Amino acid sequence: MRRRENLRDPGLRWRMYTVMLGLVLVYLFFVTVMLQLGVPIVFVAVLAGVMLGSQYYFSDTLVLRSMHAKVKGPTEAPKLHGMVDTLIALAEMTKPKIAVADMDVPNAFATGRNAKNAVVCVTTGLMSRLNDDELYGVLAHELSHIKNNDVTVMTIASFFATLAAMLMNVLMWMSLFGGLGHRGRGGGGGAFIIAYIVSMLVYFVATLLILALSRYREFGADYGGAMLSGKPSSLASALMKITGSIAKIPTKDLRTLETANAFCIASALRGENLAGLMASHPPVGKRVERLQQLSKEMERR
After folding, report:
1. How far apart are CA 247 and CA 268, in angstroms?
2. Would you name the residues annotated as active-site residues?
3. d(CA 206, CA 230)
4. Percentages of the chain per state (helix, strand, coil), in multiples of 5
5. 147-163 burial string, b = 16+ CB within 10 Å, else e?
6. How many CB atoms lie within 10 A of CB 175?
7. Buried b (16+ CB within 10 A) or exposed e, 66-79
């Protein structure tokens, strides 16, 4: 069985590195200002680290539980295991656990802090709507997320945005008890106002950058999944079927995927494709266009 090469798009990789560099610069500015103002940022950072660390180590269990998904063995889901076995051999990676969520919403996601603890989950609604080639392409997309360590990258990227959000709450409570006192170089009241404004600004800018990174990583997983499966057009077809079906699913049913939306192959939130900078997933039209172009390039090789 021939190993698939070039599972990462070099252009997308550089764009992701640019976004991550932007995050580093924003965070350095944030930490410098907070330390200058005498804000107890170390204490808040420890709290943020504990919270994100818990999410990181238990993300697979928490997400599966929220969707009532069950891990399935080879005898319970032979088709899924057979496809995944083929794909992991091509990608030369550790096999993740396979889970199925019994819901009509068509979607799939991958989670877990590393390859040894990863889980790929698909819904029964997805399996009932896709043909085998499309399902194979979706599984390749999710395995690409695992191989690229996307859960780890997004958790690290989110750390200071979470810290800024927590710090805003801490500053709000501190304002009720005298602000920063006279520890800050700008004086108690002035230091408090500056710290609060900087926290809000950093949270907003960091959130925009994290969402941009999330969209790039979806494009990256599309590319990696298409190269791994060798069927970009099937993945494009699957995306169109998924989003077309989601538009017809009642909103109350879509809410079951809210906690896992960032992990899903396609957004289950109404109107996110129109949200632009605030969307966690790229517009499906752009994803399909890229995959169709990749299909043409592969045919010419």
Report:
1. 9
2. 142
3. 35
4. 70, 5, 25
5. bbebbebbbebbbbbbb
6. 15
7. ebebeebeeeebee
Q: Which amino acid is at 154?
A: M
pLDDT in tens, 131-147: 999 999 999 999 999 99
Residue 299 vs residues 228, 292, 293, 294: alpha-carbon distances, Å: 15, 11, 10, 9
Contact 301, 230 (CB under 8 A): no
pLDDT in tens, 250-282: 776 677 777 677 788 988 776 555 556 778 889
Which residue in 58, 11, 16, 53 sits closest to 214, CA to CA? Answer: 16
Tell me how far the alpha carbon of residue 221 is from its chain's centroid.
Answer: 11
Residue 121 is given by DSSP the state E
User: Token pair 């877990």 is at which residue?
Assistant: 112
- From CA 145, how far away is CA 211, in angstroms rounded? 16
Angle (CA) 237-17-116 rounded to 5° is: 65
Q: Which residues contact 269 (CB under 8 A, 6 or more apart)?
A: 254, 258, 261
3-state secondary structure of 67: coil
CB 107 within 8 A of CB 261: no
Look-up: residue for tokens 């080879």? 74
- Give the three-class secondary structure for 99: strand
Report the predicted TM-score, pTM, of the whole model to 2 decimal places.
0.85
Higher pLDDT, 196 or 144: 144
Q: Retrieve residue 245's tokens.
A: 């079906």
Answer whether 213's CB lies under 8 Å from 19's CB: yes
Q: Give the Cα separation of 35 and 73 in Å (integer).
A: 51
